[in-house]
Predict the structure.
Amino acid sequence: MSNPLVDMQKPDVIFCIGTNMTECHPVAATGLKKAIARGAKLIVADPRRIGLAEMSHLYLPLRVGSDTALLLGMAHVIAREGLIDEDFIENRTTGFDEFFEHISQWTPEWAETITGVPAKDIETAAIWYGSTNKGAIYYTLGITEHICGVENVQSLCNIALMTGNVGREGTGINPMRGQNNIQGAGDSGALPNNYPGFQSVTDPKHQTKFKAEYGREIDLEKGITKVTALELCGESIHAMLIDGENTLLSDPDREHCEHALRALDHLVVVDIFLTETAKLADVVLPATAWGETDGVCTNTERRVQRVRAAVPPPGVAKPDWWIICQIAQRLRFEGFDYHEPKPIFNELCRVSPIYAGLDWDRIEKGEYQWPVPHKGHPGTPMLHEEEFVNGRGIFSNVHYRDPAETISDEFPVWLTTGRRLESYHTRTQTGRAQGIDYLLPEESLEINPADLERWELTDGEWCKMSSARGSINIKVKATNRSPRGTVFASFSFADVPVNLLTGSGYDPVTHTAELKVCPVRLEPL
């Protein structure tokens, strides 16, 4: 997030797009509720009439996969109405003249033909956001899990740069992270294109730095993504270690994923429970859970926090860092003789510029948000106050693209997927709690009541849902949350493997799967 969580209470206009925050980030969403109670206007763009939409002052029910078109239409209106921040654009951005000419063609009327959102509402959203000095954007996986995820984020950056709604209190572009410590994982270098601290692996000076640090040759090229790794299983990749992820349920195109994992000669899974993925493994190494582990977590607002073990681990369970170090030692790698997490974190601080001012003792109370570039630095709750990392914000001339697959006579219904308040991700943890199971015992397919008769379905009964990749059986639930022609289900339940259907395409830059768009066919059982 560019702004701290406390800033969620401060905008005058809040634009939420592709985020079901009251269910997926319910604690953080209380900040938005406080802002609304104070008088802030809330704009919500989502295909479903989610809880946020019920709270909104303006709801934009766009068609799944059409976010770029909506944002192009909004950018057109902001420019047309003269709502741009000329001083900010001149002093802190580049490429605006070309961008201004580019967006002249993408009218709200054009956007309506793609999104289904009335042009008048697109205009209203753009004028509200463009007219305020405190406009904040919040988004999550509903923006990124598309083949055009990068263009979606670039489009959000465009309207923030146009209006100068960056680098000030109550503004910013704020992605809410989907899992705990996903931010910390990226910070630590768990990315194919970056060393720790988001230092590019293709930069020769970074290569030199880490070669000196670890005393071994380092390739000057990006690593492969998980998508590529799964495609190469059984060919050039014969062994794999999966740590803390239930790949079989969370990844798209389950049949392809299972085939890939079974094609390996050797699969190792590190996890706290015997997940569906772990059941395929040759070796399962039991890890400690959050309450059994000493370590560090960096949350969605870049706050670096100590994690402390409250109870001893059961049986032979060990922390992930210990397991990885033991494997490395048996592979005869040097430098993995750690006996506690403190020196590991201090090493991260030594090699990462954004952590350079921190150490294990300084994060005792969790008060610092990176970047903390040197000792004594107070941390950076808000990014981009004076300048951007690369000096200037770059306008991107994006174009709208259809999803990888669109509805047809064979698959005439849009399926979109996500999470529910009562269950977390693949239910590895929440699925083992009886109280949670009482609240949400099974998965269901949310369908607009007006579609039931047309599709010969019955509320509470079962249907067969099919895509180009396979079929599953799922119980029908009539609800006005789903618009006509679009259905919704979560991917949490192993006995209703929704991700067997998804996987029509990937963003070419990030390899993020298009989990939010999948054409399907529904048949009564």
About this structure: The domain at 413-524 is CATH 2.40.40.20 (Barwin-like endoglucanases). The first helix runs from residue 21 to 24. The two ends are 45 Å apart (CA to CA).
